[in-house]
Design a protein that fits this description.
Order of helices and strands: EEHEEEHEEHHH
Structural class: alpha+beta
Largest sheet: 5 strands, mixed
Bound molecules: zinc ion
Number of helices: 5
Helix content: 25-40%
Length: about 180
Amino acid sequence: MYRKKDYEIAFVGLTIGNHTYEYKLGKSFFEVYKASQFFDSNITVTLTLQKNAGFLQLKFEVGGTVAATCDRCGNDVQVQLWDEFNMIVKLVENPQQMNETEEDADIYYLARTESHLFVADWLYEFVALSLPHQIYCENLPDGQSGCNQEVLEKLQALRLESEDEPSVNPIWKALEKLKDKK
Ligand SMILES: [Zn+2]
């Protein structure tokens, strides 16, 4: 769990110009989002908020590492993250309607009467977008795969075994058993 308050920016009281925030995101932050792509994290997101009259310009810089499982062999892998995302928050009269019709994912509308901006969901989303689609062990210095070869061989053997087994429709199997009883 996290305290919602820790991820709210009271932007109304800010002066026009740049303001910087730093968010350290560990395991407990991602548990709230039930993130399953990694099991531990050491991430810092630096958020630069530029306040302008009528809109806010946000830049999220994601950096750090996550501990994940290799998709090929199941070994633990440290994955380096580095990415940057921009958002524009516009202050308008009818934010709900505007958000529903806005096609640009980088633009978000907030009511003019609003005083706080909640950023936790974006922090999560941008970390998730920084992750590679597939996570593999790093190659060894000689260029060979760094994956656990023993595990890969066992997996390969299992795969071959299951290919040998003829696929039998369970209904035929059941009928076969009935026949045997006669
Ligand atoms: Zn691996």
